[in-house]
Amino acid sequence: MSTKIIIGITGTLGAGKGEIVNYLVKKRGFEHFSVRKFLIKEIKKRTLPINRNNMRLIANEIRAQKGSGYIVEKLYQEALKDKTNSVIESIRTPGEVNTLLDKGSFYLFAVVADPKIRFERIKKRGSETDEVTYDEFIAAEKMEINNSDPTKQNLTKCINMANYKFENNGTFKNLYKQVDNALDNILTK
Description:
Helices cover 54% and strands 13% of the residues.
């Protein structure tokens, strides 16, 4: 492949975004850039607790002040410094998608799964932002699923804007097969 490609990952909480990233990094040689890590650095600078609510609030504040594509633009610029293909994880607003689509050689992958399966996955994952009840999990998702404000999360619209959409209710082996099929399609264009 002669042209560097950058893949963005969007999807619902616990659907398998991180699993796709791990696969792309370990099996396909991609470099990883994370919106989550970017936000955690900002939260730490502000000495706030690291939780999903603060991640959402800080992201929305940054987008409102600096533009809806600001965070992913920063990560995109970092990705360009590396010659390998790259993946930017956790695209959450249509403005972020549009910012990246305007760059060329960018493809958006979306991953979705049943809410109960996703909740079980995040409980097993056990990161600092995953310590929630099922009701809190569903309530947090409702805040991110649809929003008319371009600086706030709208996962439904992002998922609908994706070049490739994967259902991840089964095994990770099945998910990897879907990812490989998408990559094969991209690489033969």
